[in-house]
Hints:
Elements lengths: L1 H24 L24 H13 L3 E7 L2 E7 L3 E3 L2 E12 L4 H4 L9 H5 L7 E4 L4 E3 L13 E2 L11 E8 L8 E6 L3 E7 L2
Antiparallel strand pairs: 1-2, 2-4, 3-4, 4-8, 5-6, 5-9, 7-8, 9-10
Amino acid sequence: MNRLIAASAAATLTLLALSGCATTSTPASSPPTASTTGTTQPSTSPTGAGSATSSAVDRANDDVVASRSATSAGNQFTLKLQPLQRSGSTVVLSAELIVDKAGGDVTSSRDLLSDPNDSISQAKGSMNGIGLIDPAGQKLFMPATTDQASSSAVCSPSFPTSIAAGDTITVSCTYAEIPTNLTSLNVQAPHFGTITNVPVR
């Protein structure tokens, strides 16, 4: 009888232990939270299972909220903007910069999306000039910078030194301390103007 009670108790403990393992293992598949300190985390890196990653990429390619064209130094470009992606108070902007026509001065076009007030980054062809605007709060948010290089924005890539018609440059910028109650923002891009009511998801 004692042996039967002991065996039953052992079986109960084993089931409890197994159910505890199942509960604690589920959050492991959730995507990492982006840092608000300005550290770079590529927005296109896979974070989940293969099928989930593939469908997320498909959605991102189809999900263009605005498209604008601009000319710079004889070169023509189209900027295709995707919805802003939130992780806590950090927001990531993703866009495609397509070269429609090349043949002009590439050096002069390297400031296409740069901040004219940041001469260090502008000299490197930084894409750091895209601002997010909260029209109700009347605030402008510029790309975050890192502790290691406060003069360099968390934007990628640098504008290339050579371009050809048909080239696509995938632009990404990270913004910190964006109020969590904001569900849309205006995007101000040099040469391309202001795109209003871009959703934050």
